Amino acid sequence: MFIHIGDDNVIRSEEVIAIIDHQLISSSTINEQMLFNQRKNKKVLDPSDEGTKSIVITRDYIYYSPLSVLTLKKRASMISTISKLEDYSESFEE
């Protein structure tokens, strides 16, 4: 399944490693160093800090998102719930 994380970015839900509040990044030198290294390797997409509320870390890239961590969590939970539903579409077909 896919998650829309804002700014026309849609990512595969299984590729998400972490979603971090943007305000917490500056409180950790390890996080700052990781972002610096990934930016140097051109693995950071949309690095503009304007309006950024969260950072989504995937296997290959880091995305800056204008959506809050809570909103992204709800979207991911919704996808998880949908994927657990059984497919009853065949029972309605004739």
From TrEMBL:
Pfam families: RemA-like (PF04025). It comes from the Bacteria. This is DUF370 domain-containing protein.
